[in-house]
Known about the structure:
- This protein is mostly helical.
- It has a domain at about 15-50.
- It has helices at about 15, 25-30, 40-45, 55-60, 65-75.
- Helix 2 (about 25-30) packs parallel to helix 5.
Amino acid sequence: MTHKFRTVRVHIPSEVYGLMDDPQMADLMAILLTRETRYSAACWLASSNSWLGGPSPLSVLPERMADVIFAARRHVDPYNGGHG
């Protein structure tokens, strides 16, 4: 059996590159990786998000980091996320 894999490209805004050493970005990734693979976390970051009012998490970073972290908590734990 042969599997074909698609390459998914995610555009990361230049402002986000400066966040790679930010402790909040590390917290965000730690939250997402409790439930997601790296690939699915990247997809979540690049996808429209209702908790953010429609835009993708990547498109609102770094200005709305607290909102993105809240949305990530809601994503991994929809019943208790955002409380803690």
